[in-house]
UniProtKB/TrEMBL annotation:
Coiled coil (residue ranges): none
Name of protein: ATP-binding protein
PANTHER family in the cross-refs: HELICASE MJ1565-RELATED
Keyword Nucleotide-binding part of the UniProt annotation: yes
Residues covered by the AAA+ ATPase domain: 24-214
Residue span of region Disordered: 310-346
Biased composition (Basic and acidic residues): 315-327
GO molecular function terms listed in the Swiss-Prot or TrEMBL record: ATP binding
Entries under InterPro entries matching the protein: AAA+_ATPase (IPR003593), HerA-like (IPR008571), HerA_central (IPR002789), P-loop_NTPase (IPR027417)
Keyword Nucleotide-binding belongs to the record: yes
């Protein structure tokens, strides 16, 4: 079996090849603005090497799912699994040498980053006897290895940077060859980009990105202008697996497609202005009054994915029937409404209350809790399609803080104060506010930690500092070590 794959042609029409064996040892960095053909290049590379080497694709947009139709890649839906299941699946992927696509498109951005980091770390930590060669393709790598923190939580940033750095810096000895693709070199962490020895640089227009690309290709500033003039599907390649001198490559055709909408122009509807207005406004009030029912799709649980991975590797599961379940996808976030309640929603409120009362529930991710909530609602025959993720998170915070046990006037006063409190700190704020409203002693750090879903004392102290900086509470430390907390707006109820 040959290790040379053709990725396209040069300016003279001659075939351009990539040495897969060399690529495994030297890694690859791909850059290209949106629309430059970056995903097309990755697809060509994956298709041509599918029968040569194992492939693992980290896919934040779900663009590479079609590889499963033609090349027997196993699709792993990140939204359908818990953290422990994701880690276990990564171990089986290395053990059985099955090519997979980790689809993250159903997750929020921070959950995508955490899921990918956990999966990559588990690939990296596989036992030595499973260190088989594999290409690990990470699309939109600037998300998973950001040059700056931005709005990403610091712990998530450390987690994903460590995973990406291990992949690019130390993955070679474990058989993992990183292929990272990014729209902006300036947004990609330098210690990740610097570990690649092969480069395919597509069209970009920003001076800082052109200069970094030119530096990597060994081009001077005047030659860097060539990068701006590249056409879609054209890349400048350099590296031991491609060419010892920069070469212009026109990427070849592919056999699978992405899910992207058509980019060409389509004829506009032929109708009068009155007809078009009627299309928009007829029965609008009636449709708006109807609850939105998100389209449900069947999701394979981890046991099904494990079964498919093992069966691809030659293992047999005749003694075991596949277990499948349907999970409702999370509805798009909307403005948070009031907490659940009322005669029509008593069933939903009971499900949320029971879920919040379970030990360890607050330590689970919002996505996992929401899936469990949706599953329990279906089991009890309780309609829940109108409850989106944002409203669920706030309702869960109300339940875990015990707000439902307060009398109506106190509860309503706290709810008004909490309307603008961010979701991630809402539960501890409500627990503190409930104690203040009832004149009870403030919750100790252990109780705040339980509600917050953390076991770190230092994190609780930072939480209280954050709430105080936001003007939500006032903290007074006494010489004896006692702490007094006053909730802004509820001073009349504060404990002495």
């Amino acid at each position: 079996m040959g290790a040379q794959i053709e990725i396209g042609t040069d300016s003279e029409g001659r075939s351009t090849f990539v040495d897969v064996e060399e690529l495994l040892a030297t890694r690859l960095l791909v850059q290209g603005n949106s629309g430059s053909g970056k995903s097309h290049l990755l697809r060509r590379l994956l298709e041509q090497s599918a029968q040569i080497v194992q492939q693992v694709v980290i896919d934040p947009e779900g663009d590479f799912a079609s590889l499963a139709d033609r090349y027997d890649h196993v699709l792993i839906d990140g939204a359908a699994h818990s953290a422990s299941e994701i880690a276990a699946l990564a171990g089986r992927v290395r053990q059985h040498r099955v090519s997979v696509v980790l689809m993250l498109d159903e997750l929020e951005v921070e959950q995508q980053i955490r899921c990918a980091a956990l999966f990559l770390s588990a690939l990296f930590d596989a036992p030595r006897e499973h260190w088989y060669p594999a290409l690990v393709v990470v699309d939109e790598a600037q998300m998973f290895a950001p040059a700056a923190a931005g709005e990403l939580a610091e712990d998530a940033r450390r987690l994903t940077l460590a995973a990406m750095t291990n992949l690019m810096c130390r993955g070679r000895k474990r058989g993992l060859a990183g292929i990272v693709a990014t729209q902006r070199l300036a947004k990609l962490a330098k210690n990740v980009a610097a570990e690649a020895s092969n480069f395919l640089m597509g069209r970009t227009f920003l001076d800082i990105d052109m200069q970094r690309a030119a530096d990597l290709l060994g081009m001077d500033r005047r030659q860097a202008e060539r990068i701006r003039d590249l056409q879609r599907g054209q890349f400048l390649g350099l590296g031991p697996a491609i060419s010892r001198r920069p070469v212009a490559v026109q990427i070849g055709a592919v056999h699978t497609g992405a899910k992207n909408a058509a980019e060409g122009l389509a004829p506009l509807p032929v109708a009068s202005g009155d007809e078009l207005e009627a299309l928009l406004h007829d029965d609008l009030a009636q449709q708006a009054a109807e609850p939105v029912h998100p389209a449900a799709r069947p999701v394979a649980r981890s046991v099904d994915i494990e079964q498919e991975i093992s069966s691809r590797a030659g293992a047999r599961f005749e003694d075991r029937e596949p277990v499948r379940t349907e999970e409702a996808t999370a509805a798009p976030p909307s403005n948070a409404g009031p907490p659940l309640g009322g005669a029509d929603e008593d069933g939903v409120a009971r499900v949320v209350h029971d879920l919040a009362a379970e030990e360890g529930a607050t330590f689970q991710s919002s996505a996992a809790l929401y899936r469990e909530f949706a599953l329990r609602c279906r089991q009890r025959g309780v309609p829940s399609a109108h409850i989106d993720m944002v409203r669920f998170r706030r309702s869960f915070a109300h339940a875990s803080a015990g707000l439902g046990y307060l009398e109506a006037p106190l509860r309503e006063a706290i709810e008004r104060l909490a309307e603008k409190v961010p979701d991630d700190v809402l539960a501890p704020y409500l627990a503190i506010a409930a104690a203040a409203a009832q004149g009870r002693a403030m919750p100790d750090e252990d109780e705040v930690a339980r509600v917050y879903g953390s076991s770190s004392p230092s994190r609780i102290r930072r939480l209280l500092d954050h709430l105080e900086r936001q003007g939500l509470i006032s903290v007074r430390e006494e010489f004896g070590g006692e702490r007094t907390i006053t909730v802004s707006g509820l001073e009349a109820f504060a404990s002495p």
